[in-house]
Amino acid sequence: MADVFKALADPTRRHILDELRERDGQTLFELCARLTSKYGLDSSRQAISQHLGILEEVGLVVTRREGRYKFHWLDTSPLRAITGRWPVNDNEGNER
Amino acid sequence: MKVYITSVFVDDQAKALRFYTEVLGFEKKADVPLGEARWLTVTSPQQPEGPELLLEPDSHPAVRPFKDALVADGIPFASFAVDDVEAEFRRLTELGVRFTQEPLRMGPVTTAVFDDTCGNLIQLAAQ
Fold first, then answer.
1. I want to staple B121 with a disulfide (CB 3.0 to 4.6 A). Which of A35, B19, B76, B96 is the partner?
2. Considering only CB atoms, which chain B residues are within 8 Å of A68?
3. CA distance B30 to chain A (A)
4. For B20-51, how does the pLDDT look when each residue is reduced to its tens digit (9 = 90+)?
5. What is the per-residue pLDDT across A25-44, written as a single tens digit (0 to 9) for each?
6. Which domains does chain B have, with CATH numbers?
7. Which part of the chain is the HTH arsR-type domain (chain A) (predicted)?
């Protein structure tokens, strides 16, 4: 679980997850284009690739090859360990 | 100085000519036999005197690993301008063209990326 927190601690990695939530199954090229145009990030392609590697290690991103292409998919299931340990209270008005 | 020709590396010139003319809508301009290969260019019907696109053989050993690495990461080799990316996306998808990036609006620009069936990804862009 500590690794998931560490992966989520970085703002670029959170943006990557946001963009995959908007459209799942993206190439590295599309993710880089989105991060640059939407967030003005000037990270190199290699840096984004390394961020994706960290997200993949903790299971938040899954890569799949389809023929000659490689796509990145979001997998939120590792977050279940967090809400399982500290359940979210969904009752309205009880938020603190 | 101006651009008069640019090229894409294709794995099969005859197949490339079919795809670039029959599917994409370019027109053949030059077709000169050159030993095993051809000097084969196409132009846009919207710009017949504009830049030519050379469908260049990718037989040099350095080219295919280069193309494969670009394709794996989704990086387009060339970018073509269209008036309406969404409309081209629908038209080409119906013709069986595979897109690796669906139309994406980025500020004033909309882009999409498709496979040219000759080993390259190509970007469509509209301003």
1. B76
2. 68, 71-72, 115
3. 31
4. 999 999 999 999 999 999 999 999 999 999 99
5. 999 999 999 999 999 998 99
6. 5-126 (3.10.180.10)
7. 1-94
Q: Which residues of A touch B100 (CB under 8 A)?
A: 27, 30, 69, 71
Closest chain A residue to B100, measured at CA: A27
Instruction: Name every residue whose Cβ is closer than 8 Å to that of residue A64 and which is 6 or more positions away in sequence.
Output: A25, A70, A71, A73
Q: Which CATH class is domain A4-75?
A: mainly alpha
Per-residue pLDDT averaged across A9-23, rounded?
97
Supply A52's token pair: 């994706």
Q: Where are the domains of chain A?
A: 4-75
The H-or-E segment that residue A23 falls in is none
Instruction: Give Cβ neighbours of residue B49 (< 8 Å, ≥ 6 apart).
Output: B43
- What are the pLDDT digits (tens) for B75-84? 999 999 999 9
Which residue from B minimizes the CA distance to A48? B73
Cβ–Cβ < 8 Å for B42, B52: yes
What global pTM score does this model have? 0.91
Structure tokens at B20: 């670039």
**Can you give the three-state secondary structure of A34-83, one letter per residue?**
HHHHHHCCCCCHHHHHHHHHHHHHCCCEEEEEECCEEEEEECCHHHHHHH
**Distance, in angstroms, between B32 CA and closest chain A CA?**
32
Asked whether the beta carbons of B8 and B53 are under 8 A apart, the reply is yes
**Which tokens is A2 given?**
């500590």
